[in-house]
Structures are given as C-alpha cells and as structure tokens.
Amino acid sequence: MTTTENKTLDILAIKSLLPHRYPLLLVDRVLTWEANKSITAIKNVTVNEEFFQGHFPHKPVMPGVLMIEALAQTAALLSFLTMGVKPDENSVVYFVGIDNARFKRPVEPGDQLKMDVEILRVSRGIWKYKAVGSVDGKVALEAELMCTIRSAQDASQSASKPAGQ
C-alpha cells in the first residue's frame, strides 16, 4: 500500500480495504485523501437500495444510522490508508463512540452523499474524526466519530469475558 497523497480509489480498491459488502458497503468512490489528515468520498444513493422499501415507501429517506455508517466506513478507509496497510481477515474496525451527531437535511434517492472526514487525533489505538456528509454543497449530517482497529480474535475474547474482568 502506498501512502502517496491525493489519490482516488475506485470500488475495487475500496473493497480491498473494507470488509463490508453489498448491501452494507456504503462508499462508492474516494475522490481524494491525504494520509494523517483527511479523505473525501461519495455514496451514490439510488432508489434500488433495499432500505428504501421500508424507510419510507411513500417518501424514501436514507436512514440516519446508515449515513453515520457511511461516514464511519470512510473514516476506516482513511485509517488504513494512513497506516499504509491493508487489513487482513482478522482485522475488525469497531465504533467506540459517536458525539455531536446532527442531521440537517434528508438524503433521498438520486442524491450523491459527499463525505468529508478528517482525523482529529489518534491516542492509544482510538481514532477520533470529524465527519461531515453533504448533498449539493449543503450539510446533511455531521458528527464526531471514534473507532478502533482490533484483531477479531482479541475482540471475541474480550466479549466472552464476564463483566468486570
């Protein structure tokens, strides 16, 4: 993996970095990225998305939780690109927090959700990002996200421990 700045990534490169697959892969293209700083990616929102069948059939709106997930996937891409590594089947990126999430406008079929994520800090394995999603230059959502990258084995061992251990 190269850390050359200001590169684009197509869907094949994105799939090599993220474990997500349809219908939960929510990043279609990376427009630009700079290691240790920021990334800009897009999600093309189409009426064919499965979630529009139930959210809401009479007025389709992309669920807020999926917009946050799209920002988190963009943040994970930035982390892997910054570290200069491709995750293996044992790597898992976990959310550890979402702060100050605000939804400013709905995202509908036909929209292109532009996701801008910047690294605020990295400390003790926790990555904190400022994330903004916009459509046609208007902010649709914003949040501060915190994630960590763990091995699947470590994560499952800590999950199986009784509380307080």
Write the layout of secondary structure elements.
Layout (H helix, E strand, L loop, with lengths): L10 H7 L11 E6 L3 E7 L19 H20 L7 E13 L8 E12 L2 E10 L2 E14 H9 L5
Antiparallel strand pairs: 1-2, 2-4, 3-6, 4-5, 5-6
Keywords, separated by commas or semicolons:
165 residues; alpha+beta; Thiol Ester Dehydrase, Chain A; six-stranded antiparallel beta sheet; 3 helices; 6 strands; 38% strand; globular
Described by its quaternary structure, the protein is single chain
The total count of helices amounts to: 3
Please give the order of strands in the largest beta sheet.
1-2-4-5-6-3
Instruction: Just name the CATH architecture.
Output: Roll
Spell out the CATH superfamily: Hotdog Thioesterase
Gross morphology is globular
- The share of residues in helices is 10-25%
The low-confidence parts are none
- Please report the distance between the alpha carbons of the first and last residues: 38 Å
Number of domains: 1
Structural class: alpha+beta
Integer-rounded radius of gyration = 16 Å
Mean of pLDDT:
90
Would you report the number of β strands?
A: 6
Q: What summary fits the major beta sheet?
A: 6 strands, antiparallel
N-to-C SSE series?
HEEHEEEEH
| Broad CATH class | Alpha Beta
CATH topology group: Thiol Ester Dehydrase, Chain A
Query: Beta-strand level of the residues, as a percent range?
Result: 35-45%
Brief summary:
Helices cover 22% and strands 38% of the residues.
Structure characterization notes:
The protein has 165 residues and is α+β, with helices and mostly antiparallel strands. The protein has a single domain (11-160), classed as Hotdog Thioesterase (Thiol Ester Dehydrase, Chain A). Helix content is 22%, strand content 38%. The protein is built from 3 helices and 6 strands. Strands 1-2-4-5-6-3 form a 6-stranded antiparallel β-sheet. Strand 4 and strand 5 (126-135) form a beta hairpin.
